Structure formats: structure tokens, C-alpha cells
From TrEMBL:
CDD domains for the chain: AdoMet_MTases, PUA_RlmI, RlmI_M_like
Protein name stated in the entry: 23S rRNA (Cytosine1962-C5)-methyltransferase
Keywords noted in UniProt: Methyltransferase, RNA-binding, rRNA processing, S-adenosyl-L-methionine, Transferase
GO terms of molecular function: methyltransferase activity; RNA binding
SMART domains xref list: PUA
Origin superkingdom: Bacteria
Length: 395
């Protein structure tokens, strides 16, 4: 096996001894010897003791991932096969579920291979490659998937080049082509998926438990405002739970996509509101008109720029919550969600607390969510659990 041996700086040795999976430049002595992504890397300490073996692949997070902490194991077909088999068998419950056929089948370092995720959509597998390095193992990984599970087809997104964005190209890899849309089910709610339509396929699977909770516990006869609504996934959950929903998103595409999702759930979209508008403009008008909702869902991107507004979750989330408080009924509910990796749950709750203090309102936290179980995380890389969702009741 062609491998590059790199020495870990003294102060980082302990981190790797404990199984930290991310390889990052600051931790390494002789980084210059790395040439080609996909190269096998073996990390050793200054006394040449083995620390881990992985691959070179550049992502915004780091320089590569450790795939094995055993000196004897090679980065080969068997390693990929075993990790995939283990991950798929852990999802047995999802494979056999009657009301859910969309889930994450393999979640990066949480399942032992950083830089690789695989989502399952009703018979189809969607692979996301986060670096040229992991893409170098494509043949082995495809072979392992085909050997392990029956499937209709495989699609892929390459999130390298162009600063981690998906470059617009054909996502089809092999098998049958998926219908467009491909209809999937999550806890009895249908969603329209487009596997071959750019970076986002129509649903963010990491919110499955949040959607379920909204549907089952907080929607009956409620007026629900879904902000940053994208394809209206939260609106579908709420509407299935008998809410009247208002979905607001800046992107023109959200209108058709949200109507389509209502239609495939046999819900008349005309009984719901779908608004294409800057949410900050909407908040202002709603306040002026004294509009109030029973439930307000906040799920903004970490960064967003519109004509008149620039939003950064780390800087502006507190103000976003204040805007929501203004148009939520007393005893109403705010669902605040963020996938921003630069702050943790403790800090997020501080934003919430400040917002309520500044609005002179009391609150109670009813639920907290992180990533669901199909989005496996390892305690060796806790920062992989980026999702933070808080259900807040105004008192
Ligand atoms: N909550 C969604 C996912 C949100 S993705 C879900 O659960 O599926 C982020 C969305 O925010 C995008 O659709 C984008 O168009 C929208 N967006 C970004 N800035 C916005 C703004 N200022 N006002 C309204 N929508 C905005």
C-alpha cells in the first residue's frame, strides 16, 4: 500500500490517541509531503508509534479523515465494505418502516468515514462526496453498496471544487433513473424529491424528529408560520397535523415546490398561504397588521443575503427570535432551529434568553433536539452534531 507517513505535533498526540478522526494541518509536522488527494496517510507520534490511518482529502473542515485506529488494517475494499455494512444494518428499523422510506443511511465520521454521506430515498441512494480525496475511492464504495443492498439506482453530489458547492452537472451514477419528482414518505408525510436538480433535493432529512413533533403535538387547529420555508417541509408536517399554515420564502421556486408537496399529500394548497417574500419584510408587515400565530418556525440558513438584508445566524439569531416573539400569541410556540456550526446549544440558548429578556416576556423550553439517530455521530467528534432545535413556549 502506497502511504505517506506524517508525524503529529506533540501537543496534538493525545487528541489522536483518543480517536479524534479529523486530520488537520496545524497538527502535522511534515504536511508538505502530501501531494495527491486520496493518498493514504499514516499518522505517528514523535517516537514513531502508530496513531491512525486515513486519507488525504481537503474540505473546509480539515485535510482528511482517519478511517482506522488499528495498525493492521489497510484502507481497502474490506474496510469500506465493513463500515457500510455496519451502518446499513444499524438502520434496519428504517429499512423496514412502513411510513418512512427516506433516511440517512451513512453519516460521515459518525459511521467511520468522514467526508462521505449516503441518503436513502425510496429505493435510490444519493452519495455526497465532500472532497476529491474520498471521491478517489468511488469504485470501491459503489461496489460495496451494490454488494450489500438491493437498489433501484444511485445518484451523487460532488461537494468539492467551487468552495464546497455542488457544481451543476448530472447526478446520475447507475441503475434506473429516478422519476422526477421521486415521491418519498417520512412518518406518513409525502415529499417530492429531485435527485438530479442541483445541490438540494427538496428535503433536509435531519429534521425528521422535529417535523414529527410539530405534526403530532403542536398543530391541531393551530395557525402555523413557517419561515425560510424552502419546499414547505415543516408546513406539510403541520398541515398533516391539522394546522393552517403560512409558508414564507424569498426564492421564487419555493411557490411551485410547496404547492407540489401539498398536492402529493392530498391537501388543498388554497387553504394555506404560500408567500414569496423576504421574511424580514414579512415580519414588519405582520407586526403592523397585528397578525398573530400560534406557532412560528424559524429555520434560517447560517448565512443569507437578500436585497435589503444580510443575515448571519451567529450574529442575528437573537433579533430573529425577537421578531418572532412579536407575532406569536401568548402561550404560543416558537420552534427555533439552526445548523450553524460556529456556536453550540449553550450559546444558542443564551440568544434565546436574551431575546425574551429584551422583549419582556417569559418562556419555557418544552423540547430540545439534536441530530436524529440515522444521522449517527461519534463521541470522538462531538462537533459533528451540528443541529440545534429548541421548542419555546411563551408564557
Ligand atoms: N426550513 C427549510 C430549509 C430552509 S433552507 C426546511 O425545513 O426545509 C433556507 C431557505 O431560506 C432557502 O429556501 C432560501 O431561499 C430561504 N431564505 C434565505 N434568505 C431568506 C430571506 N431573507 N427571507 C426568506 N427566505 C429566505
Amino acid at each position: 500500500m502506497r502511504e505517506t507517513i506524517l508525524t503529529v505535533k506533540k501537543e496534538f498526540v493525545n487528541k489522536y490517541k483518543k480517536g479524534y478522526p479529523l486530520i488537520f494541518e496545524e497538527a502535522l509536522e511534515n504536511i508538505k509531503t502530501l501531494k495527491e488527494e486520496g493518498q493514504i496517510i499514516t499518522l505517528i507520534d514523535e517516537k514513531k508509534a502508530f496513531l491512525g490511518r486515513g486519507y488525504y482529502g481537503k474540505q473546509n473542515k480539515g485535510t482528511g479523515w482517519i478511517l482506522s485506529n488499528s495498525k493492521k488494517s489497510d484502507i481497502d475494499y474490506k474496510l469500506f465494505y465493513d463500515k457500510l455494512r455496519n451502518a446499513f444494518s444499524k438502520r434496519e428499523k428504517f429499512y423496514y418502516s412502513r411510513d418512512t422510506n427516506a433516511f440517512r443511511a451513512f453519516n460521515g465520521e459518525g459511521d467511520g468515514i468522514g467526508g462521505l454521506t449516503i441518503d436513502y430515498f425510496n429505493g435510490y441512494y444519493l452519495i455526497t462526496w465532500y472532497s476529491k480525496g474520498i471521491y478517489a475511492f468511488k469504485d470501491m464504495i459503489l461496489k460495496a453498496i451494490k454488494a450489500l443492498v438491493p437498489l433501484d439506482g444511485i445518484y451523487e453530489k460532488k461537494r468539492f471544487d467551487e468552495n464546497g458547492m455542488v457544481i451543476d452537472e448530472n447526478s446520475y451514477v447507475c441503475g434506473r433513473k429516478a422519476s422526477e419528482p421521486l415521491i418519498v414518505k417520512e412518518n406518513g408525510v409525502n415529499f417530492a424529491i429531485y435527485l438530479n436538480d442541483g445541490a438540494m433535493v427538496g428535503i433536509f432529512l435531519d429534521q425528521k424528529e422535529v417535523r414529527k413533533s410539530i405534526k403530532d403535538k403542536y398543530s391541531e387547529n393551530k395557525r402555523v408560520l413557517n419561515t425560510f420555508s424552502y419546499t414547505g417541509a415543516f408546513s406539510m408536517a403541520a398541515a398533516k397535523g391539522n394546522a393552517i399554515t403560512t409558508s414564507v420564502d424569498l426564492a421564487a421556486r419555493s411557490l411551485d415546490k410547496t404547492i407540489e408537496n401539498f398536492t402529493i399529500n392530498n391537501i388543498d394548497h388554497k387553504e394555506h398561504n404560500i408567500i414569496v417574500e423576504d421574511i424580514f419584510v414579512y415580519f414588519k408587515q405582520a407586526k403592523k397588521n397585528d397578525l398573530k400565530f400560534d406557532v412560528v418556525i424559524l429555520d434560517p440558513p447560517s448565512f443569507a443575503t437578500s436585497k435589503d438584508n444580510r443575515f448571519s445566524a451567529a450574529r442575528d439569531y437573537k433579533d430573529l427570535i425577537k421578531l418572532a416573539i412579536d407575532i406569536t400569541e401568548d402561550e404560543g410556540l416558537i420552534v427555533a432551529s439552526t445548523n450553524c456550526a460556529t456556536f453550540n446549544m449553550i450559546k444558542f440558548k443564551k440568544f434565546i434568553d436574551q431575546a425574551f429578556k429584551e422583549s419582556n416576556k417569559n418562556y419555557e423550553i418544552l423540547e430540545e433536539h439534536h441530530l436524529p439517530e440515522d444521522f449517527a455521530v461519534t463521541e470522538k467528534f462531538p462537533e459533528g452534531n451540528y443541529l440545534k432545535v429548541v421548542f419555546i413556549r411563551i408564557n
